[in-house]
């Protein structure tokens, strides 16, 4: 069964809407953006705040909660928009990374975003041994932004 950590009421009702609102008006928290992806069944736009990661000249989206709805949708569509502030929406294409490609990205993500997302990684932090990052890699989809 795919790994998924459902957001609690505080996150769903207050935190995510607040982060999305601040991002929309041009006050992102450490570079957060709003990801918009078409629903795989409805075709309707679905939005959620995300924490893009820049690492070694490339950009990535990491799913700290696991197999979320945005992950399932982006796997089907392969495209999405990153929105935020006064900038026009950026249309992106993504490619999902294999589990073997994830450890360095998970480490970088945890260094940058642990203050917000550490609880979703089962006690594994940025300083964890490589084998621990490999162990949790299947639970956290990672997508490289290719365009």
Fill in the keyword field for this structure:
Pnp Oxidase, Chain A, alpha+beta, 147 residues
Structural write-up:
- The chain is of the alpha+beta class and 147 residues long.
- The protein has a domain at 9-99: Electron Transport, Fmn-binding Protein, Chain A (Pnp Oxidase, Chain A, Roll), CATH 2.30.110.
- It is 32% helix and 27% strand.
- It has four helices and seven strands, in the order αββββαββααβ.
- The chain has helices at 9-24, 69-77, 103-117, 130-136, and strands spanning 33-38, 45-50, 53-55, 58-62, 79-84, 87-96, 142-145.
- The protein has a seven-stranded antiparallel beta sheet, with helices on both faces.
- A hairpin with a 2-residue loop joins strand 5 and strand 6 (87-96).
- The longest helix is centred in the first third of the chain and has 16 residues, at 9-24.
- The radius of gyration is 15 Å and the shape is globular.
Which structural class matches the secondary elements? alpha+beta
Kindly report the name of the CATH homologous superfamily of the domain at 9-99: Electron Transport, Fmn-binding Protein, Chain A
As for the CATH topology of the domain at 9-99, it is Pnp Oxidase, Chain A
Question: Which parts are unreliable, with pLDDT below 50 for 5 consecutive residues or more?
Answer: none
Task: Tell me the number of helical segments per DSSP (H or I, 4 or more residues long).
Answer: 4
The fraction of residues in strands falls at: 25-35%
Average pLDDT over all residues: 90
> Can you count the beta strands?
7
Q: What is the alpha-carbon Rg in Å?
A: 15 Å
Instruction: Give the strand order of the largest sheet, numbering strands 1, 2, ... along the chain.
Output: 2-1-5-6-7-4-3
Tell me, what's the shape? globular
CATH class descriptor name of the domain at 9-99: Mainly Beta
Distance between the termini: 31 Å
CATH architecture of the domain at 9-99: Roll
Fraction of residues in H or I helices: 25-40%
N-to-C SSE string, H for helix and E for strand: HEEEEHEEHHE
The biggest beta sheet is recorded as: 7 strands, antiparallel
């Amino acid at each position: 069964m795919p790994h998924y950590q459902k957001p609690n009421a505080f996150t769903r009702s207050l935190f995510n809407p607040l982060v999305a609102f601040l991002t929309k008006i041009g006050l992102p928290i450490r570079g957060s953006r709003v990801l918009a992806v078409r629903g795989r069944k409805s075709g309707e736009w679905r939005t959620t705040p995300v924490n893009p990661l820049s690492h070694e000249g490339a950009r990535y989206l990491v799913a700290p909660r696991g197999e979320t709805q945005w992950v399932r949708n982006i796997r089907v569509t392969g495209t999405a928009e990153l929105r935020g502030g006064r900038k026009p929406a950026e249309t992106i294409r993504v490619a999902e990374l294999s589990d073997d490609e994830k450890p360095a990205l998970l480490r970088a993500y945890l260094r940058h975003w642990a203050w917000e997302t550490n609880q979703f990684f089962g006690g594994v932090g940025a300083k964890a041994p490589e084998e621990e990052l490999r162990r949790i890699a299947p639970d956290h989809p990672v997508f490289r932004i290719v365009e």
